[in-house]
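Hey,

The postdoc asked me to send both predictions to you directly instead of through the lab channel. I've kept everything plain text so nothing gets mangled by the mail client. Protein one:
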Amino acid sequence: MKTGRLLTPFVSPARGVADVPGSKSLTNRALICAGLADGTSVIENFLMADDTGAMIAALQNLGVSVIAHENGRSLQVAGLSGPPDVSNVSINARLSGTTSRFIVPAVAVGRGKFTISGEAPLMRRPFHDQIVALRSLGANITELGAVDCLPLEVDANGLDGGTIYVNAEKSSQFASGLLMAAPLMKNGLTLHLEGAVVSRPYIALTLEVMRKFGAEILNPVDGTYVVSPTGYQSAIYRVEPDASAASYMFAAAAITGGRVRVNGLSRSSKQGDIKFVDVLEDLGATVNSGDTFLEVVGGSLSGGKFDLNDFSDTAQTLAAVAAFASAPIEIEGIGFIKAKETDRIEAMATELARCGVAVHQSQNGMVINPNQWALRSAQVETYDDHRMAMSMSLLSLRVSGIEIIDPECVDKTFPKFFEVLESLRDTKDFSSETTPVIAIDGPAGAGKSTIAKLLAEHLGVPHFDTGAMYRAVTLACLDAGLDVGNIEAVALLAEKIEITVGSRVQVDGVDVSERIRGIEVGQNVSAVAANSLVRKILVERQRRWAIEAGGGVMEGRDIGTAVFPDAALKIFLTATVDVRAKRRFGESSDQSLGQVKKEILARDETDSSRQDSPLRIAANAVIVDTSNSTIAETVELLGMLFRSEVSQ
């Protein structure tokens, strides 16, 4: 049975320097070149993860000596000084696409009999274009299972090379594997790419690494590569931080409005996924860059349309970010990721929907239609796909109750992912200069009043119901026969009356605790709450109360956005419309359930569209869906968030 990891939301913006591991793509390319090189190479800042472990094991099976040094920070690789020459070797590429697609051409240029297999998800991934290309060069390859898939048996006797045409519409890894084997072909290789090349930057990455190890490559025209039969020479190669892995940390800054830096990366990197920061910049984030660092500072997130054909490994990251955008985000050019570890478009759409995000799929991408009010807790399946686990974990930064099933799958490329993400948690230290307010906002029927009151008792701090203030003004208007739409008259009355909010609510010394919860007040309070003059009067009283009380729990509809935007903890309580209607229906029998639901929808529209302080989810607010939680569970969760995130 697969285990789950329940993640705790961030209360504050993500901040810090993320310790991102070395690039998987660069590490595995450097390992292949070093393993086939003449002499001993050193690979610094390499990634040690399942994918690179698979490559190291494969090379060791071929006779390459690989030894870790400097407490695991570098690898010493004694190369074969040419193609492998062994017999009856079995290689298990595990789940690593790069290992399998780089090793097959590497053994095809050698001598001996080799069997390349992997775990079930890898065995389903297609190898057709690489098999066809190698056979055209004279390689003897037999599929031992399904056609065009692993396991493959390669009966190798070297390759002369020549000219080949490779379809690169499904994966650039096929071309990269052939290119890296080319210096060991007797006559070298001229490779022509056909079709719309996907993930083109990865081919540039391959050429860069090959040249570091002495390969000679010409690129006379776009899509054509001429590789000389030079073999490889040993080198000292330093691996950049993984831009794909860094995308999750940059996304954390964008989602939480934080500031996250990754050292060792710059915009000049040849890693294609470095372009992800350009997307974040287009969405509203600020990107700071130097020769040796990249930093993302979050801002409000807009929508847009983005072609991720050249950096598709960040498509799931962007889809997770899109859940917090203010407008739809369309991701296109990624149809080929349906054949990755899983159908990544289908998987992402399914799991985002599980968390309340509407996604429209197409053959070439997806459109994410964000609605933060609908975000909810969920158990998220990962499909043995490390990128599913890492991208969906980003929702937990703002949404409570996100549980990642089989979190260990991140070991494929980023074993310390959760620790690095957690290192960006910014714990607040509240001093005497700061009023520690817990701000609870949300729509009607989400449980704000009850939960806020019990949370205050749970924490032993004061409670203040701001909604009761607006209800008190509304009741006073109704008693005085005032039209609640008369802005000036209502404001004059609000200024004049004395409202006391505590365990009971009083207006001018008269207890109105029960009366303010009546149907007529409920039907008119939105108009009063939308009155900008009234809000100005009452917000000042609310702030004064919090300061005089030394902090506490304050609930309403604009506490985290307008009254206390710097609150210690900002919570947005929500629930489905049906659940909220049932709760309100249970409070009174004077209306039908249908009427109550209609009233709640109208209230949501009024509250969210009013000009002054509309109901919004505050920046950094933790979204808590109470639909399937008891009051006690929600109170315990909020208490835990306050205690664990804030040191007082």
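Protein two:
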Amino acid sequence: MKQPFDMKDDAIYFVPLGGCGYFGSNMSLYGHRGKWIMVDCGMGFADDTMPGVEILLPDPGFAASLGDKLLGLVITHGHEDHIGAIDNLWLRFKAPIYATKFTAERILQDLTEKTWGRDVPVHIVPSRGIIDLGPFNIEFVDVAHSIPEANALAITVKDVGTILHTGDWKIDPDPVIGALTDQTRLRALGDAGVLALMGDSTNAMVPGRSGSERTVEAALTELFGEFPDRAILISCFSTNLARVHSIYTAAKAHGRQVCLVGRSLKKIEEVARRSGYLKNIPPFLDYEEADFLPVSQLVYIVTGSQGEPRAALSRISGDDHPAIELREDDVVIFSSRAIPGNTRAIDRIKNRLYAKNVQVVTDHDAPIHVSGHPYREELKEFYSWVRPKYILPVHGEQMQMEKHADLAADCGAEKTLVPANGQVIEIAPDRLQVVGEVQHGILAIEGSRIVAIDHEAILTRRRMMWNGSAIVTAVVNAKGVLAAPPKLTALGLLDEASAADQAVIAVLVDELTDKVAAADKSIRLNDDALTEMIRVTTRRFFAEHFDRKPQTRVHLIRI
């Protein structure tokens, strides 16, 4: 396969395929002398502008084109936005996977649901391990995050330099689960020289520090004490194992047991115990077991903190859960923050809860959530350790990445560059520049298939969502004369049971009948021309009468 750009021997090439300009779907490639590695392969969430679509994926087309020149997929940590696309995309590039134990167990758990999953080579890297893939020496460096075994990757190419890919991280002086951010090793890397850093931009606009998970544990312990005789439901990211641990500690302090509600929480518990975490915590209850205890002795941890319509919290709030029913004065705690794009879905759940007179507690009411990503003061401290020559902000929307670049310049970076997905960025001791572009984009899981987000099925649903759909069936004879009045179906535009709307339909049918009858013979004898005339007439009618431009289809039947 010929590269769509020239690779110089004195440079490393960075190609982000996802995670730049939006949150999630993280996927990056690093290349040198024709050899490549991939870092992370994550999913993202669609918003309500894409009806029928929940999951988004990065387009791995360029990675797939590399064939055996792609030496491996290296994973920073086990969050879905970094591993969640593997089970959908791996067959396209088929590279061996390298991850620490907890993350590898998470990946294997998903792969077991695929018929080909056992064929995927997943290699477990020890904590602080080092692997060599072709010209790349890759060191896993401990960083604190909201999931165990988060790693920055120090990627070194001999005679070129070291690139630090931070992954997701923060500085937490007292994490509940997982390692401290390894300041000693990061300082040593800085002393040896870091050529470039690809850094998490999630909170680059937020002043101060993100805070410690230990403060959340203390706040939850105090909060649970305020509701001694009431049911407590708490929702958090299912992968936030530190938060699950904090909830257990707070519940235990008040004589309550913890019940997990939701498949993803149970999967995380399974992986955590298999990987050596939660050793001193008894198995959590499921809701069938919890049913034998009074609510005053329980804390339910439920999935759905982001408003996911099929998750446990959404179903509970809508009285649609098979086992859990909320009553007046019960308590629901949101121990998470809203991912951009999910606010409306979360608010819908909150409104249903308020309508039941359920007490809702969020991080605006009590310090019950801390971010897993660094605020501005942590970024400054990190850069004082590492002192990279170049900084490339990633993992964020454009505004976060731009603010991150400004901060990086203030911290002494010689040069910053805000990447865009698909750009080929050449990194060498004497230059940092964009030198090309490769195939990139966003894919959507649409039902049981994977398609581009501009697939006609998705675009049509979007147009129908805003403007409705009009379908006209017209039966004509060989001469183009109508055999019967046209039949109209107007979805999302008219109520066919309404007398007033029936009158509107009658007006349009009369107009179409007259239009066909008056059409030139050349149009009436040409199926395409007659179809287009009926379509344009129908669309113009709705534009003039309803200020709508519906998705319009014509079924022309010639007898």
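Summary for protein two, as requested: The domain at 468-558 is CATH 3.10.20.580 (Ubiquitin-like (UB roll)).

Thanks,
C.
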